[in-house]
Amino acid sequence: MSIDITGVRKTYGDFVALDDINLTIPKGQLTALLGPSGGGKSTLLRVIAGLETADTGTVTIEGTDATKLPPQKRNVGFVFQHYAVFKHMTVAKNVAFGMEIRKKPKAEIVARVDELLRLVHLSQFSHRLPSQLSGGQRQRMALARALAVEPTVLLLDEPFGALDAKVRKELRDWLRRLHDEVHVTTVFVTHDQEEAMEVADEIVVINEGRVEQVGTPDQLYDEPANDFVMGFLGETTRLNGALVRPHDIHISLSPQLAGASEGVVSRVLRVGFEVRITVLTDDGEEVGVILTRTHARQLGVEEGVRVWVTPVSGATTVPTMAANAG
Amino acid sequence: MTGALSGATIDVARPAPESGGRPGRVRRQKPRNTLTPGAGLGLGIAMLWFSLLVLVPLSAIVATAAAGGWENYVNVLQDPQTWNALKLTVSQAALVTVINVFMGTVIAWVLVRDKFPGKAVMNVIIDIPFALPTVVAGLVLLALYGPNSPIGVHWAFTSKSVALALAFVTLPFVVRAVQPVLEELEADVEEAAASLGANRWTIFRRILLPSLFPAIAAGAALSFARAISEYGSLVLLSGNRPNETEVASVRMLSFIENGSYASAAAIASVMLAVALFVIVVLDIVQRRVSRRG
């Protein structure tokens, strides 16, 4: 196992950023730390890198106890949200920096920089200054710079957070392919569940300084451990006091299935190929249902129509806290 | 690397900006100026004001000096007392500027990076040498380093007093130039360097210093310019002893008092040349260094 975190706790005054984190991050995989802003995921990443020190607990990287090691000695590559470029150095110099620190022979540095710039598609830009690059290019340069020192683990802190939606999506796919090639153990922080689901082999959901669940994207989506995980990964709605995905709800104009709740369609909204329907049940719940446009047309759902809704068989449902209490 | 990677749409290369070639032609195609009528008026007012205050008086000085002809220049500069005054002024100003570069950077660093009680007060006090009337600065220094020195340091009326007075009045320049730049440096750049294996000294030398250098150079230029022109604080502290503690500005005044305007103007134009030279050199060095990796 590549990174072992045991009993890590970190507080800033009264604020508990990390609360007894125990986590093992597998070697050679792409792991996402996913959670809402301020949930502690960036702090955990910085603790792994040695940029923050934990109050208690240990961090072990590839079998070496790194808890007391300064960032310089951990051999991790770190990529920051806002690129952290060395503004006064050319792209090639930026990438070479870590190797120059390690006093590698000049010829080796030149060859490796060349190889890395080709890997991140910046060969043509090697003599430019970072200010002459776009955001996406800068982030790829930062990635090459981090990879140059052949890190044991690569840590990325919201790497695409500062980029616009289109570039973000491109870089996401590109990171996945890059990882398939380089195979370095990679941990990246994101608050975007779609990004985590698309890119990661494994997702660690972190909220309020605690690990909520660890698993593959499918596991988390299909078998969420609790209502927080269910709510954070994908859309949810509430039906009979349980969380259920809006596209997992069967809707009919007559009582077809046993246990279906009766209600009235209060709103129909078409977004592209899907139709979002809000049903106000007789029990007073507002249930969101998502259908394809074809399906909605076949059913003939309109505002004011009386309908019956129930989770489809095999749907993922999680009882909510409110339902547990009642 | 592989087909999969090169298939990405993100690797579109734009042609590198043209360097070399025939830049002259490109330049000619641009309009000669881009001023709107309003901006033209603004430029006119700015130039008029600048001319009345600076350009015309400066030209007048040079003209006055030149009216005496080369002979006058040679005579004035061959006078040992004048030559010594010029040498003292320039050398002490250079010394003080070098001290300021180090001390000013250290003070700015402490003010930005460290937390300590009294920091806010220190931050305000830094400007006092600049804000005080310079004669008062001389008086303050005389109290501490003069004949009645409470600490037993009798530097007044020696050449050390010149450096002392200059260091006092030029203290804030480098501090105030470096401080805002240091404040705006992003912490993650240093963290990135640290995670790449750079120790604190390497981070300072290779990452921070190149970013700070333009500010340090600007502060140094101001500091030097102020130092060679200093008069007020020196009058009391240095004693104005010919060939020993007499600076150029004091020498100039004595020429004027003797009615020798052309000689005073000659010194003035020499000082003007020195100031220009230093400011231009610092600017060139600054451009070079901030480009280097």
Q: How many β strands of chain B by DSSP?
A: 0
Sequence stretches where pLDDT stays below 50 over 5 or more residues of chain A: 322-326
C-alpha Rg of chain B (nearest Å): 25 Å
pLDDT averaged residue by residue of chain B: 81
Provide a concise account of the structure shown.
The complex is a heterodimer of chains A (326) and B (293). Chain A has 326 residues and is of the alpha+beta class. In chain A, 30% of the residues lie in helices and 33% in strands.
Outline the structure in words:
By secondary structure, chain A is of the alpha+beta class. Chain A contains ten helices and 18 strands. Chain A has helices spanning 41-49, 91-101, 106-119, 135-148, 165-182, 193-199, 217-222, 227-232, 293-299, 321-325; strands at residues 3-12, 15-25, 30-34, 56-61, 64-65, 76-79, 153-157, 185-190, 202-207, 210-215, 237-239, 242-244, 249-252, 261-271, 274-281, 286-292, 306-311, 317-319. In chain A, the strands form four sheets. A six-stranded mixed beta sheet of chain A has the order 6-7-8-3-9-10, sandwiched between helices. Chain B has 293 residues and is mostly helical. In chain B, 75% of the residues lie in helices and 0% in strands. In chain B, helix 3 (37-67) packs across helix 14 and helix 11 packs antiparallel against helix 14 (261-291). Chain B is globular, with a radius of gyration of 25 Å. Chain A binds chain B through residues 49-51, 70-72, 74, 76-78, 80, 82, 84-90, 93, 97-98, 101-102, 118-119, 121, 124-125, 127-128, 132, 136, 140, 142, 145-146, 148-149, 167, 170-171, 173-174, 177-178, 181, and chain B through 1-2, 4-6, 8-11, 13, 16-17, 186, 188-189, 191-199, 202, 206-207, 210-211, 290-293.
List its salient traits:
heterodimer; A: 326 residues; alpha+beta; six-stranded mixed beta sheet; five-stranded antiparallel beta sheet; 10 helices; 18 strands; 30% helix; elongated; disordered C terminus; B: 293 residues; mainly alpha; 0% strand; disordered N terminus
